[in-house]
Amino acid sequence: MFVTRTGRVVEPRNVNTMLDRVVRHAKIDRSRVHDLRHTCATLLLLDGATIRDVMDQLGHASVTTTGNIYGHVLDEAKQKMAERMNRLAEGD
What we know:
- The chain is an all-alpha fold.
- The protein folds into two domains: 1-31; 38-90.
- The protein is built from four helices and no strands.
- Helix 2 runs antiparallel to helix 3 and helix 3 (51-58) crosses helix 4.
- The relative contact order is 0.08.
């Protein structure tokens, strides 16, 4: 749900129209708002956000829901953290 500065709900069609305009101007492939939601969650997890933080951001009812959807991302995030720890331990 999107709201204006005054708190009024923005009509979903208007959100899609604005998004279409932005991606066209940026010369990137068309995205749906839902695609951006997944991208946001994925990037947050890869950057070290907790599953609880992402759950809160997305408004899921439980961490189980978020974990079921983004579990594969958590595995990649764990690998990146392990690589980061190796670099730190080696002094790079």
